[in-house]
Amino acid sequence: RAAYDAQRQAVIRQKRGQGPDVANKGAPRQRIPREFMLQPIGFPDKFLRYSDERARAHCVVNSRGDAKLDGMSGLEQFVPFFKAAKLSLWWLPDVNNMCRIRALEARTRSSAGERVVAGRPGGYNLGFYINGDGFQQEAEVVLMEAGKGEKKENVNFIVIPSPLYENAFRFEAAFRKGYFLAFRPPTYLRMIAYNGGKLPDKTVIDFTLVDFQAMFKFIDVEEVLRPVLERHQRWMKVEEVKADPDVAAYFQNILQKPMWDDEDFQTYFEGHFETWEYRQSSDGSGPEVRLRGVDERLGYALDHIKDSDEAASLIVGVGDEIRQLRLRYMARTIEALSKPGSEDVPDVLRRMQAQRAVLNAFFRAFAIASEDSTVTELAKVAKAMQELASREGTSPDVIGKTNEACENIGKLVARRLSDAERTGSSSSSLYNVPVQFLKPLLALPGVGQSAKVLSKLATPPLQDAPIKQLTDLVTSAKRGNAGDLAEEIAKLVLKRMQKDDLLGPELARVLKELISAGVALEACAEMLVKSSRELSSGEMSGCLVALAEKSHESSHMTKACEMFAKEELDDISSAELLALATASAKSSDLSICVDKVVGLATILLASWPAADAVRLLLAV
């Protein structure tokens, strides 16, 4: 709390234009703790840390949530987290305020495998590689082992009191002037070029140094309460929580304050309702609380994320708990990971890690709860899987897992549909499927064989669905080897088109989608004849070309071409003329229009690109 308040006051003073208090100024060496943790100004929950005890290990800026340690949770990972944040300065006599920033807990050969102690030489230093030509804008910060006088240009810093913030400092490269240690959210630590003026967006070069002895003050009350509730896995009376030895020790030894009363606990639990559920007991014995499951906590958080990077951080942050995610929450989680995100390598790797974790959790959840899931719930998961697999940049192994998941879902849905047809139980709520989820279901392996049964389960019935959804279903049914269903839906669409009096552009769009799917071609040609007056010559030509591309020939096609040939064709483009001429080779009916097309093209040929003119001559 003290560290947070100090940062808050520093930021407030800076916003008021006051800057640091002159009375507090003194030599950095006198003001910096012997052992400390480094925090960027404005981020009191984040600490500079190193990722491993080895040379060239990356240095990052993590909050506790950013750096969940494998197999650990709560207080179990508290000490390991802060051990990697323990630093000290090795002051150098060459220049005033010159130093090296050392990783105290990292063991090296020079320290004989022992951790480094403040005030003694040896160990790893925060280092960087800057070429010195003045063109390099930034460099990564890594651990480097350097003896006395070695690698000065890589590990030596000058400590400068911040001109903006109280009790804050900047770290400039001693032999690479104009390069400063900088934090860039969410977790990046860099050396950046800076010569005054406005900093790059979301970049911080001012840091506060917190005495390492205050480490235990950063234990959050949730880290104490969660293990207590996890041990019981039930509703607990608040009095039981207060009586727990770990909770009592936290208030007495860490906070050094009296235990909260019931009203304080109520305020805390209700203020963090996404994690805790608080209520008055039904028997009047007092308030009680429970820890929400991972699906509840994750579900609430995912509803408020901006992009897939936030989603990935949340998922990676819950660690092994993700394996408890239930099937009904799976679609929402996968959808969040399909949102746009940063292309920075660490963010991409974190998204891949989160995607793999969720997909592994899916197979466990599917094995446990698939038989109790509705067809709609399965469709939502399938849709999310398909969108993730189709997202640009999704890794091959993730695509492979989504395909495997869709195969499993497809087998179950196909079996459900077969059972529904055999037993006549399709009226059960387990089987009702909103129309918008028919498309992802039809894309599942094996479902096409039972497509007609599936179409009967749609709510609302297909005849009441919007035309746009129906045309999408035609394409999906065709791709899913459900040609009979595609034909039926196409006929339904054509009836709706007559009933709804579609306007020219929409009419042409729907006809071209049906024709492109290769369904009800003769009916489409007939509709083209009936609706010719509603269509511009450009819209008419598009539909005729689509039919010709399918090599369709019929009396209605002939009639449509004859009607088209009699039009003035004033609004037809050169691209549409070329498409007509090219498509005429695939349908003899369209050849009726060739003379008209060539005559008009001859007038316009001088303005055509040479390649298009050659294509026209070859086509006719």
Q: What does the secondary structure layout of this molecule look like, with pairings?
A:
Layout: H1 2-15, H2 28-31, E1 36-40, E2 46-50, E3 59-63, H3 78-83, E4 87-92, E5 98-103, E6 124-127, E7 138-140, E8 142-145, H4 152-155, E9 157-161, E10 169-173, E11 179-184, E12 188-193, E13 207-211, H5 221-232, E14 236-237, H6 238-243, H7 245-255, H8 262-271, E15 276-280, E16 287-291, H9 294-302, H10 308-317, H11 330-337, H12 345-369, H13 375-390, H14 396-423, E17 433-434, H15 438-442, H16 451-456, E18 458-459, H17 467-479, H18 483-500, H19 504-517, H20 521-530, H21 537-549, H22 555-565, H23 574-583, H24 594-604, H25 610-619
Parallel strand pairs: 17-18
Antiparallel strand pairs: 1-13, 2-3, 4-5, 5-6, 5-9, 6-8, 7-12, 9-10, 11-12, 14-16, 15-16
Helix pairs in contact: 10-12, 11-12, 11-13, 12-14, 13-14, 17-18, 17-19, 19-21, 20-22, 21-22, 21-23, 23-24, 23-25
Short overview:
The protein has 620 residues and is α+β, with helices and mostly antiparallel strands. It is built from 25 helices and 18 strands.
List keywords for this structure.
single chain, 620 residues, alpha+beta, three-stranded antiparallel beta sheet, 25 helices
Structure description:
The longest helix has 28 residues, at 396-423. α11 packs antiparallel against α12, α13 (375-390) packs antiparallel against α14 (396-423) and α23 (574-583) packs antiparallel against α24 (594-604). This protein has 25 helices and 18 strands. The protein has 620 residues and is α+β, with helices and mostly antiparallel strands.
